[in-house]
Amino acid sequence: MLWQGRRQSENIEDRRGISGRGMAVGGGIGTLLIAAVVYFLGGDPSAVLDQQQQGNIPIEQTEVPNKASDEAGQFAATMLADTEDIWAKLFNDMNRQYVDPKLVLFSNSTQSGCGFASEATGPFYCPADSKVYLDISFFDEMKNRFNAAGDFAQAYVIAHEVGHHVQHLLGITNKVDAQRSRLSEREMNKLSVKLELQADFLAGVWAHYEQQLQNPKFNANVIQSGDINEALNAANAIGDDRLQKESQGYVVPDAFTHGTSEQRIYWFKKGYESGDINDGDTFSDPSLN
Ligand SMILES: [Zn+2]
Questions:
Q1: What is the tens place of the pLDDT at every residue in 51-88?
Q2: Ligand 1 midpoint to CA 40 (Å)
Q3: Rounded CA gap, 222 and 230, in Å?
Q4: What is the 195 CA–ligand 1 centroid distance (Å)?
Q5: What spacing in Å lies between the alpha carbon of 219 and ligand 1's midpoint?
Q6: Which of 177, 242, 252, 262 has a Cα at 20 to 30 A from 147?
C-alpha cells in the first residue's frame, strides 16, 4: 500500500506506554477465557473479556494522545481516516449519519467499555463505547504465527473491526444481542458466524472504495497489486476450521464463531467486488442456514 503522507484520523487514543492505574489486574478464569480467543479477530467482547474487571478506574481521557508518533500507529490512524471517509459517504447515500468510532491503541492491557482487555485479546470492537481496541503486537503475531504478513492484511483487520461498528450503527448488533438469551450455544454460534462474516463483507466493501483512492504524493493508487491477496491470505489464515485444526488437530463446526477460511474469503471478496452494502445480508443467506 502507498498509504504514507495522507490524512490521519485524530479519533485515536494511543494508550501505549501509559501506565494503567487499576488496570494491572489479571489472572483467574477471565484470563484463561481471554487466552482462548487470542486467535480471533473481534467477535463478541462480552463473551471473552473479564467482566469482573469492569469498574476499575477509567483512563483519564486528557492524558491520552490522539496522534501516534510511530509508523505502526500512523498507519492505523491513516486506515481509520480512510474508513471514516468511505463510510461517511456510504451512510450519506443511505440518508444516514455516520458517527466515527474511536481506535484505542494499547499494549499489554487496558480497560474497555466491554471489560478488561489483556495482551492476549485479539483486536475487537466494543459496541458499548463505540471503540475499536487494537494491540498492535497482534500484527506481529499475524505475521509470525499465521503467516499473514503485509500492510493490507493489517488494514483488513482494522476494516473488519470498523465493520462491526457499522453493524452497531445499523442496529444489527443489537438485534443479534437481543436473541442471545433465548438461543442455545450452538444457535448463538451460528448467529455469531453470520455477524462476523458480515463484518468481513463490510471490510470488503471498504476495500472496494479504498481501491479507488489515489495518493497524490506518489501519483499512484493507494492499493497496489498484491494488496488484496494479502487480505485474502489473512482471511484464509484466521478461519475457524484452520485455527481449530492447528490448535486441537480437529474441527468442530458447531463451535465456529467466525466462519471457515473459505467463508471468510468468500464474503470479503463479495464485498470487495460489489461495493454494495445491500449484497451483504449474511443473515438470510441460504448457505449459512
Ligand atoms: Zn469480528
A1: 444 444 455 545 788 888 899 999 999 999 999 999 99
A2: 7
A3: 14
A4: 8
A5: 34
A6: 252
